[in-house]
Amino acid sequence: MPTWHATMIAADADAARDGAPLLRCRFTVDTGHGEVVSALLHVSALGVVEPWLDGRRVGDDVLTPGWSSYEWRLRHRSHDVTAALAAGTAADGGGGEHVLGLALGNGWFRGRLGWMGRRACYGDELAGFAQLEITFADGHTQLVLTDETWSSHASATTADDLYDGQSIDARRHDPAWATTAAADDGWSGVHVLEFDTARLTEHVGPPVRRQEVLAPVEVFRSPSGRLLVDFGQNLVGWLRLSARGEAGSTITVRHAEVLEHGELGTRPLRTAEATDRFVLSGGHDTFEPTFTFHGFRYVEVDGWPGDDGAAVPADLAGAVRAVVVHSQLRRTGEFECSDELLNQLHRNVVWGLKGNFLDVPTDCPQRDERLGWTGDLAVFGPTAAYLFDVKDFLRDWMRDLAAEQRARDGMVAFVIPDVLKYMPEPPDFPDPDSTAVWSDVAVWLPWALWNAYGDRELLGEHYPAMTAHVERVLGLLSPTGLWSTGFQFGDWLDPDAPPDRPADAKADKGVVATACLYRSARTVADAARVLGREEDADRFAAAADRVRAAFLQHYVDAQGRVESDCATVYALAVEFGLLAGEQRARAGDRLAELVEQAGYRISTGFAGTPYVTGALSSTGHLDAAYRLLLEKDCPSWLYPVTMGATTIWERWDSMLPDGSINPGQMTSFNHYALGAVADWVHRTIAGIAPLEPGYRRSLVAPQPGGGLTWARGSLDTPLGRLSVRWELSGSGLQAEVSVPQGATAVLRLPGQADRELAAGTHRVTTTMP
């Protein structure tokens, strides 16, 4: 961590202070100490910041420093600018003037957050922070710092908000603003803000960057004559647009994920405008609104130069591109099979993760929300850790969780960062306290990361948050030892619940919560043993045993029926290990009966859906699990695929069969939580699972079914790539398994004894039972 000398500075003039200000300073490289051998620029902001040096953008990060729990953690990024300054000093004999600039935007700090209309939750003044450390051949270090000597000016961005969009007036753009050629006319001063640099922390997670650029697949007119562009994929990012037109004319771009009866479907956005406005200069202009982001597949373009309202402008398709933006994540896991609908479902899961892993793991990326809801990540963690290397991304987020938790006596909030604490409390919103599934992320996510990466240091870092959560919940139990007190989301979004009452599920909330507590207490005991904390392990194991005993006494009858007798309660009781022996077998049978009675359509919500296929297959009902997975009628995983979905929906019926959007006020077309079934796909169809943390020892156990004739999966484990491919041919099964060096695997094929596999490639042919 650097020793900080810079200060946090804000613009003086109203025009700059209230908009998206530019900050800059001129400096001269010290010529008396030899060549520049290194130059490191540290940057942060209250808001989001783009650093510039001598007219060039520094780095390719966007929306830096992102969203953290600003009260305790403000992240900074560091950039190596040695080449830029060393080249400059060589060109002018070792000296010369340079310009360092910062462009600021509202971001999460001052922009709108939440669905209650609140702005500037963390502060009402944007500010920039920069510390440039230039080291010379003789060891001398020159510092260039944000301080009161800097100047400020309004930028070409006249409005910016993550929810509402960005407005850019090209007539106000000065391309030389961060160069020595820039004029000083109209620039004002800055003032120093009181700021504790102890809040500055390294950004251990990956930066947010542009990832890919998509061209339109179609440009067309809507039934009402609106000009629409389809990019063929529901994505997160913004539009890059080039145009030439009359100075002062405005191109307006609205974004949406779906069409409704041929028109832009904006109702799911609620109050988010998701609208960018570009004012033309009269020359050739290129716009890219990097201080906002949108969730969209379609855009509506109004004011395109030369648009006569009839023919589709011939130049539009070549002038617009969709820029895909998310945190820089390395893809690690793949899956493909003989069923193309299932392949599309898997692609939808991947795109849902990419769109929602934008600095913070959010619930959705498009409406007036985009918050770090903990319940979604609690169930999706194993899937995320298979598909991408998310260790550092989620490590950073867990640090925010721990900071918020310490301030709330062990409570894990509904969202992290917990911006809801700044919101006016509507009469129908619950008092926040620890909540099953949602708060359990403090335990379930670190354990998922431990199994995926085998990083003991990381598990130890997360351990205090794990124990604090369980200890708090143990103090909330009823006299019967059940977690049946306080507010619970329960089996949120049960498909049988009314659209306007998503918490009204079939599953008893106490059953769900108590099952989750047992899983968390048992997991903390296991984590304690990994870390050598035997006293903790014994204490939490005893607590788990007490919770299980209370669950069995009060929620399971003599015939093995679980209270509320619905699919979710059996799935949780089986998968979380609350039942054993004959009770477990009966629960699996009853679950299979309920799934069949529902016509193999989904009857579970957020709590039960991630576990229902696993509970079926682990109790001998593999065929039922496949039928449930591959069902196409609503509600089902494949119904959205048949409706053209390219991401996972929040509701099974976010779009109704007639092409109209669900009438509820809460529906998103990019919500990864229900995609947690991909974990079962990876473990059961591809057959890849860890037997030891970090896949040092793996289980390769594909279970063909559902009419699939082949499947393949691969995972870049910490030791290298583990891959599986199987194919059915007549009554035979052919499998090829590659095990990375330093690892071993157990191959378990249907009807066959386990085989030990060493590192290398293995080909096996066997007869299916």
TrEMBL record:
Listed transmembrane segments: none
Keyword S-adenosyl-L-methionine on entry: no
InterPro entries linked: 6-hairpin_glycosidase_sf, 6hp_glycosidase-like_sf, Alpha_rhamnosid, Bac_rhamnosid6H, Bac_rhamnosid_C, Bac_rhamnosid_N, Rhamnosid_concanavalin
What Pfam families does this protein's entry cite? Bac_rhamnosid, Bac_rhamnosid6H, Bac_rhamnosid_C, Bac_rhamnosid_N
Ranges where the Alpha-L-rhamnosidase C-terminal domain occurs: 687-757
Instruction: Describe the location of the Alpha-L-rhamnosidase six-hairpin glycosidase domain by residue ranges.
Output: 330-685
Residues annotated as domain Bacterial alpha-L-rhamnosidase N-terminal = 35-212
UniProt GO molecular function: hydrolase activity
Domain Alpha-L-rhamnosidase concanavalin-like as annotated: residue spans: 222-311
- Write the protein's name: alpha-L-rhamnosidase
The organism encoding this protein is Kineococcus glutinatus
